[in-house]
Write a structure and sequence with these properties.
Length: 373
């Protein structure tokens, strides 16, 4: 790990050279317990280096790369060793970069790197790529390892993973602030002509996320959206904002034209009494203003989400066709249009609002409002 303590580099039977040991110790600490041959020879004679190798103070792990004996091993260390063996400016890339950035669907395991073309790298157990596109927007360092930037990593993944997996990784990167759609677009521009499949995937992902797109607050929200779109339903608007008085409510997802709100109630975020009460009040405010609120949890299955949302859309679409123009979801009515008062004003004289209707009037109006909610 980056902050792991690295053992001393003094070999048995030799006297320590304070300046040398300090310099090499500092380098190996930054490099997860690793040193290159050239780094060692800047501070040690060849004889002293060979002695440390013979006494296993330094252990070869790749050609020209050594691990300080006793330094804890890790996948991060193996990936860095591959980059050091390839030499600068080699960087971790593709699936290895995704694992370093902890993007969903890419656990640590693969060793993968990219070098500038026409350089060729061959290392056992390492997938090596070449690229003509390089620059500050494309490479960086993370946890001590040279790696492609989050934006470049997303672009690279589009060549080796399905659109669904890349979409999930992109939304996770956006949610965590690792990159922005603008950065992905800028990084992809010089790569656009390299690979038709990659171009189609990235262009589609950018287009889907333009115009104020919000990736949501949790992967569960994105999972619900993915279920709906994969079932053939229109993609709902994520983190849709609704103005209620002087407040702005954010819905996890919504079909604003039908006033259908989709909320994911995660246990961690909603288990306190305060949050529970707030959610109930929030739901009431939305329903009073004509929104149908669909609530799902971690126990909700894909089938349940799709069937409930499909039924809600069908119900609301039918209601739109039967609702008078001056009531409900008229584009000119604004957020407060669908209210009990508006419904009463539009109710025929023999149903609601008439003094002679008696109990029938009191029952009919609320019933119609409920079906609208």
């Amino acid at each position: 790990m980056p902050n792991a303590t690295v053992p001393t580099i003094t070999a048995p039977g030799t006297s320590a050279i304070p300046g040398t040991i300090t310099a090499l110790g500092s380098i190996s600490t930054r490099q997860l317990g690793l040193l290159t041959r050239s780094q060692c020879l800047e501070h040690l004679s060849r004889r002293r280096l060979e002695h440390r190798l013979a006494t296993r103070t330094l252990v070869p792990v790749r050609p020209g790369v050594y691990r300080v004996n006793g330094a804890p091993g890790s996948w991060h260390q193996e990936q860095l060793a591959a980059c050091l063996a390839a030499g600068p400016p080699a960087v971790a890339s593709f699936r290895a970069a995704a694992a370093l950035w902890e993007l969903p669907g890419f656990p640590p395991g693969a060793l993968e790197l990219t070098v500038p073309r026409p350089r060729v790298v061959r290392l056992d157990g390492v997938v090596a790529h070449q690229s003509q596109v390089w620059g500050p927007d494309h490479v960086t360092r993370h946890r001590g390892v040279p790696v492609t930037s989050p934006a470049r990593t997303i672009c690279d993944l589009s060549a080796v993973a399905s659109m669904t997996i890349v979409s999930r990784a992109l939304d996770d990167a956006l949610r965590r602030g690792l990159t922005t759609i603008q950065q992905v677009d800028r990084v992809f521009a010089p790569m656009a002509h390299r690979g038709r499949h990659r171009g189609r995937v990235i262009r589609a992902l950018i287009e889907q996320r333009s115009g104020g797109f919000d990736p949501g607050e949790s992967p569960a929200e994105e999972r619900i959206v993915r279920w709906l779109t994969e079932a053939g339903l229109p993609r709902p608007v994520q983190q849709h904002r609704v103005t209620v008085g002087d407040r702005i409510l954010r819905l996890d997802a919504a079909y604003p034209d039908l006033r259908i709100a989709i909320e994911y109630d995660g246990w961690d975020a909603h288990r306190t009494r305060t949050r529970f009460d707030s959610d109930r009040a929030r739901g009431n405010e939305l329903e009073i203003r004509g929104w149908m609120v669909l609530r799902f949890t971690s126990a909700s299955t894909c089938r349940e989400v799709v069937e409930a949302t499909t039924a809600a859309r069908r119900s609301r679409s039918g209601m739109l066709r039967s609702t008078p123009p001056d009531v409900g979801l008229s584009q000119h009515a604004g957020e407060g249009a669908w209210t009990p008062a508006n419904v009463l004003r539009s109710t025929p004289p023999d149903v609601g609002g008439s003094r002679h209707a008696g109990d029938q009037a009191m029952q009919s109006a609320p019933s119609r409002t409920r079906s609208s909610a």
